[in-house]
TrEMBL record:
It comes from the Bacteria. This is SCP domain-containing protein. Keywords: Signal. Residues 88-113 are annotated as: Disordered. Residues 99-111 have a biased composition (Polar residues). Residues 1-23 form the signal peptide. It holds the Pfam family CAP. The keyword Signal applies. Residues 55-165 form the SCP domain.
Length: 195
């Protein structure tokens, strides 16, 4: 069984439920077996990213919250961070997965650098990140972990956040998962912008 790493937090995975009436398709695709790195990169990455959004919005709907809407700039920030994380592999116990040690980039600098909410009257943002392997590199495992981690759950269920960007990158961001099968790294960015 693989290890799931997201910041310095650790928690026991407890299955969550999504209402079959409106979330059955996203749950089914999120539990699909992981493909190889090349297959995920070439054929399934879009489907995997959409499964993450679907599962997050399913959790919000269960709490009576509106669905998050897609934002390309937030996705660009998530893509940049997930790709760098897998390439550099700095995540792990005691490491901050949200600050790139080579560039010093933070969620705020990446989101602003991607062009989200220029010249705002007010704005908010958040980022959640996850890496897993050996059966724990799926969208379902990522959202399950986040929902069982109070700070990550709070971001997902924050009624003040309205937009979402997401990226799923094949491979692990933690050096412990370097050669493991079924590895996936997920970065989700959230925002709310008033201009």
């Amino acid at each position: 069984m693989g290890l799931a790493v997201a910041g310095a937090l650790s928690t026991t995975l407890v299955p969550f439920t999504a209402s079959p009436a409106w979330a059955q398709d996203c749950v089914a695709s999120a539990r699909a077996p992981s493909l190889s790195h090349t297959q995920l990169a070439n054929r399934r990455n879009f489907q995997v990213r959409e499964a993450v959004v679907c599962l997050i919005n399913a959790q919000r709907a269960q709490q009576g919250l509106p669905a998050l809407t897609y934002n390309q700039n937030l996705t660009s920030a998530a893509h940049e961070h997930a790709s760098a994380s897998v390439e550099q592999k700095w995540w792990g116990p005691g490491k901050d997965p949200h600050t790139n040690p080579q560039t010093g980039s933070t969620p705020q600098s990446r989101i602003q650098g991607a062009g989200y909410c220029p010249n705002p009257v007010s704005w908010r943002f958040a980022e959640i990140a996850y890496t897993g392997w050996g059966g724990q590199g799926t969208p379902d495992a990522a959202v399950n972990w986040w929902m069982n981690s109070p700070p990550h759950r709070a971001n997902i269920l924050d009624p003040g956040l309205r937009e979402i960007g997401r990226w799923a990158q094949p491979g692990a961001a933690d050096p412990a998962g370097t050669d493991a099968s079924g590895a996936g790294t997920y970065v989700v960015t959230f925002g709310s912008c008033q201009q």
